[in-house]
Description:
This protein is about 30% helix and about 20% strand.
Amino acid sequence: MTNTTMRLPADTPDNAAAVSARFAAVQSGQNPQKDKIMTDQESASHSSATFAAAQRPAPAADSNPEHYVTVNDGTRMANALGPYLTDDDARANLPRVRAFLNANDTNADAYEYGTFRVRSYGRTLGPGRLNDRIGLHAAEEPTYTIEVTTRVVSTEAEECAYAAEDDHDCTGDCLSLDGDVRELEEPSTEEIAADADDLEAHDGDPVAWAADYIRSKTDATEVSSSPIGDTAREHEWLSGTYTDPHNNAKETHTTVRLTGDWTEEQRARVFTAATTF
């Protein structure tokens, strides 16, 4: 008969040291499991606080403009321009105030220029003293552009439709598309903007620049609505056709529109000048 002795986990060599350590900890008033739970609770509490902070709305940004460009003559300070939403905006416009006063005030060199914030507390602040004179923001320079669209086409078919017929004597006339055209290249559109050099070369006159460009760079000589009046609306255009001297069937069709900040009066003057030779 074989005797089998059941050994408790504490009696196994692997567990003996661990059990002894736990017992010693309990005897001394410590509880490893309790300590672990407390650590988890602290971690959970910290996570909850972090989550709550993340959910808390961020401080509202200033919604009212409160920043001015200021001028100080040594005894008084004036809010010259503003208010702006940020100090950076105010500083960006400070040179405009200085330039205006240099041109209009003999004492401008003696002034001190800076920026200042006036707390609005939700109310609307008054305008700077120069707002009506030079504007809260610098006016953008007008943009004058010419839009040129070109199509390269043929007035003839690529091959004769009757070439397969035995009794057909092809003279070339049968290639005609009878007023229709065949695209030889993809249509292209280019936009040309007048730069400072262009305007300087034409005494600052965008009308003279545009008329000169259209006459020298395009073959657009016909106006979409004739005769040309004192005004020309934005959708009106010039057009023209150039025939290849080596291939009478090949044509380049050009359409010119004035885009950007042209007035109707300027557009009419360009059309008149560009089509008058």
